[in-house]
Design goal:
155 residues; four-stranded antiparallel β-sheet; 35% helix; globular
Length: 155
């Protein structure tokens, strides 16, 4: 049975539990369900909000490409990626990746792979809004994120 990924880019919040329930509904072949939920942190109380911008159409296409790569690499029974845009306050959800498989290793690795490439290849930009009222700043790409993604290229 061919597995297709569910990919959404949206302003609205999401329910991780609802997304997991959808991936497993009526299925008895799922032995592992691994999820990652990325949250906005307050940066030691200095951050009022993180504003995420994206390139509509291109962001979805890139997330679909990354998800398709994961489906080719691992024997998944389901895969969901949800990424929000707009102003997100500390404690709110930003991103969700849920990978379902018959076995845990495939689900863990696929979720990890997705997050590494989502951080480095998906066209999203982050602007920090500060509690102090200091001018907003764009968040620069991090070398650690690139290094994390590199490990999948050799494997």
């Amino acid at each position: 049975m061919a597995v297709e990924a569910t990919v959404r880019v949206q302003a609205e919040d999401f329910s991780a539990q609802s997304e997991m329930d959808t991936l497993t509904a009526g299925r008895q072949d799922v032995g592992a369900l691994v999820s990652f939920t990325g949250l906005c942190r307050d940066e030691a109380g200095t951050l009022a909000a993180l504003e995420l911008e994206h390139y509509p159409g291109m962001a979805e296409a890139e997330l679909e490409r990354i998800a398709s790569d994961a489906l080719k690499r691992w024997p998944l029974t389901g895969l969901t990626v949800v990424h929000r845009y707009g102003k997100i306050r500390p404690g709110e959800q930003i991103v969700l990746v849920v990978a379902a498989s018959a076995h845990r290793r495939a689900a863990f690795e696929a979720a990890d792979f997705l997050m590494d490439f989502l951080k480095t290849r998906a066209p999203f930009w982050k602007k920090e809004h500060f509690v102090s009222g200091k001018a907003e700043t764009w968040v620069a790409a991090k070398a650690d994120d690139d290094a994390d993604a590199e490990r999948w290229i050799a494997s």
